[in-house]
Amino acid sequence: MTASERRLRVGLVMNPVAGIGGPAALKGSDDPHLVNQARLSGSKSKVLERTGITIKGLADVKDKIEFVAYTGEMGEAALINSVHRYKVLGEIGQHTTSNEDTRRAVELLQSASVDIILFAGGDGTAGDICDVIKPGQVVLGIPCGVKMHSGVFANNPVAAGKIISDIALGKLTTVTDAEVRDIDEQAFRAGIVQAKFRGEMTVPEELRYIQQTKSGGKEVEALVLQEIAADVIDNMKPGIQYLLGSGSTTAAIMESLHLENTLLGVDVVKDGELVLVDATETQLFSLVESSPSKIIITVIGGQGHIFGRGNQQLSSRVIRAVGLENLNVIATKTKLEDLQGKPLLVDTGDPSLDEELAGLLRVTTGYEDSVLCRVS
Which tens digit of pLDDT belongs to each residue from 157-177? Predict the structure, then answer.
């Protein structure tokens, strides 16, 4: 399969006892002893059933998705009788699954380079995942728990399937960093609500189109470019070199910094000062080898290329030296919508790097606003 045909890789992990304490009025299921108590009372978890609803809703995009599931009742069980292709990772012993199994599952899924981690559980499960999640890894929760106070869950299993389907179809999907909070179960049983902040995770959400970007006009486009520039500049760190690629979108950043700009070249900025103008590949490689750097690039309108067209100075060795985690792609939603669902493209001249770049990419589209785009 070529990079352009690459399926959306969805990592699946389920907490098989999530929600089991609900019917038994136990206010949660984090405590293994209470899980046993719930089972003895006849209570059953609905994780497999609810995950199955999400999986079934993805049947129409089965040719665009590949699941990577954790073994047995922690993921695989929901896919055995489905129409989807899937791979299985990990192993579970004879013990009742625990939060350590959840953490191990997520670590394995991340090492398998999944695009998005779909998990079934409640706040406790979300907290366990948050403990080991890598920055920027996109996740989405299927709500199955007793405690549901975190902002990382879809409204229901059907909604979870709809969001995954939209991503697989290449539709623009807004992403945000949502809070993970978990209530202290023991205190909750005593009638006291104590919500502990566990961190944040990156989640997709319903696309919030900015009406102004669809109405056209130079003034509106200029406003959006200013918002993108403000977001980038506010997140620039001292001592970091920023390699700004060609294009009018990156030019807006240079203009906001009141710096000279090479519209069709690559400029380097550090601590608000211009380091290099219209840099060559050799100059860039020399710089990034000796100092921490980030790359800021935009999308070529109509084509969708982010590497390999008009910015060949950003060679594969430069990109690798900077690090894939230090890439920042910026674009207006109008430009992305004009691609009509087609993926962003990379052509670095290094097939292995192109494959590494393929998948889901977070693209900055405004001030504290970004969307998920597929890269092929």
Answer: 888 999 999 999 988 888 988
Backbone angles phi, psi at 66, to 5 degrees: -130, 125
Q: What distance in Å separates the CA atoms of residue 49 and residue 72, rounded to the nearest whole number?
A: 15
Question: Which tokens hold the place of 115?
Answer: 């695009």
In which element (H, E) is residue 132 found? Answer: helix 123-132
Q: Which domain holds residue 284?
A: 211-375
Residues 139 and 153: their CA atoms lie apart, in Å, by: 9
| Residue 315, token pair as written in the block | 């060679």
The answer to whether the predicted template modeling score (pTM) of the entire model surpasses 0.90 is no
How many structural domains compose the chain? 2
Backbone phi, then psi, for 341, in 5-degree steps?
85, -5
Q: Which two tokens stand for residue 221?
A: 């486009």
**Residue 99 — φ and ψ, nearest 5°?**
-65, -25
Beta bridge partners of 195: 183
Last residue of a domain, one of 189, 204, 219: 204
* Residue recorded with tokens 């890598």: 134
